Amino acid sequence: MYLAFYNGEHSVTFGSKNSWTDWHLVPSSRPVFAPPKPKTDYVDIPGMNGSLDLSEAVSGRPVYNNRQGSFDFYADVQYKDKSSWIKLYSEIMAYLHGRKLEAYLDDEPYYRYIGRFEVDSWKSGDGNSITINYDVYPYKMEPSWSNEDWLWDPFDFENGVIRNFKSLTVKGSLSVSIPKTQDWSAPTITVKSTDGSGMNLSYNGKTYHLKDGVNRNPNLLVKNSDTIFTFTGNGTVSMRMRGGVL
Question: Under 8 Å CB-to-CB from 78, ≥6 apart: which residues?
């Protein structure tokens, strides 16, 4: 039977629980998160051919609904001497059902999918199976925040992006190159100046004053091209952001 030859390939990790290592679930097909559907807004105007497309009128770019779908698994209920499927079902429900988690595919370990998961249904019998639904953010995100300690172990040397913006020292002036992201992001910037007066930040031909402490300005967007932030002052700055791709 298929279960006898399965060794954990193509598994899914939900939070800290792996579908095979922790629950001995076998995917019925290779898991993949469904693509997000674009948010569209068409207005029908009498006398006009077609419709007026206002989908990008506010954002200036395509925006998307959450990714929604499900994973179907077969369950090896004899795993760890489990006497019945209901024990495994309750264990998965207790950990997963209704919780907001970060998940990743073992086939794609670098990116994280963030959202809510729920147990949809369970079928017992010769082919015990379980369905897990997901409703996650449209973009798959980089595994760590830019102001966290940098870890090489999960880094993807082929597709990964380095964002190491923790406690950067500013002595007079510092220019920081920020790699692009498809999921546009305004970094949260924490300033600690030596004299308490804050710092200035130059971006896209404009200058913004940053106070000591936490700053977040929606005008300071990192978009789908590399961005330069130039800080003027003395002290340290940290930037918290996380890039994403479709």
Answer: none
DSSP one-letter string for 85-128: HHHHHHHHHHHHTTEEEEEEETTEEEEEEEEEEEEEEEE-STT-
- CA-CA-CA-CA dihedral for 173, 179, 182, 183, to nearest 10: -50
Tokens representing 16? 């800290």
Q: Which of 123, 141, 159 is the last residue of a domain?
A: 141
Residues 6+ apart with CB under 8 A from 7: none
Using an 8 Å Cβ cutoff, are 38 and 63 in contact?
A: yes
Residues 187 and 123 in one domain: no
pTM of the model: 0.87
What's the confidence (pLDDT) of residue 1? 40
